[in-house]
Write a structure and sequence with these properties.
- 30% of the residues are buried.
- Strands 1, 2, 3, 4, 5, 6 and 7 form a 7-stranded mixed beta sheet that branches.
- This protein is α/β, with parallel strands linked by helices.
- The radius of gyration is 13 Å and the shape is globular.
- It starts with a strand and ends in a 12-residue tail after the last strand.
- It is 22% helix and 27% strand.
- This is Dinitrogenase iron-molybdenum cofactor biosynthesis domain-containing protein.
- Residues 108-130 are annotated as: Disordered.
């Protein structure tokens, strides 16, 4: 099983991870969602956010914009990062499971492919075998 964190604003991926207030934690097994819960990150410092994600067992963060500092903190603790993603959470999650996040409809304006994925397989997990 792997656990994905997706910051949310309404029903969409939050535009900026650093300042989001809500995050879905989605458990994936055998390439399908088996559980989903919501956590709140109101008024927490970046280090506190990373600590909560670590304690929650998050393997991968899928997000929109993210600061270089926060991106480095996540990859520094071996949490994979897929950034510059936009769209409705359910569509983004389905695209992730179908390995379709490279479709332009899921990219933020100004998307740069070289900055999209950081820390891939940092925990030794194979994203091809959710």
């Amino acid at each position: 099983m792997i656990r994905i964190a997706i910051p949310i604003f309404r029903n969409k991926v939050s535009p900026v991870f650093d300042s989001c207030t809500r995050v879905f934690l989605v458990d994936i097994e055998a390439n399908r969602e088996i559980d989903r819960k919501e956590i709140y990150l109101d008024a927490l410092a970046l280090t506190e956010r990373v600590t909560i994600l670590l304690k929650s067992g998050v393997d991968t963060v899928i997000c929109g914009g993210i600061s270089d500092v926060m991106a480095s903190m996540l990859t520094g603790v071996k949490i994979d990062l897929i950034s510059d993603i936009t769209g409705e959470v359910d569509h983004v999650l389905k695209a992730y499971l179908d390995r379709g996040l490279d479709q332009t409809q899921f990219h933020l304006p100004g998307f740069r492919p070289d900055s999209h994925k950081k820390g891939t397989n940092a925990r030794g997990r194979d994203h091809e075998n959710h």
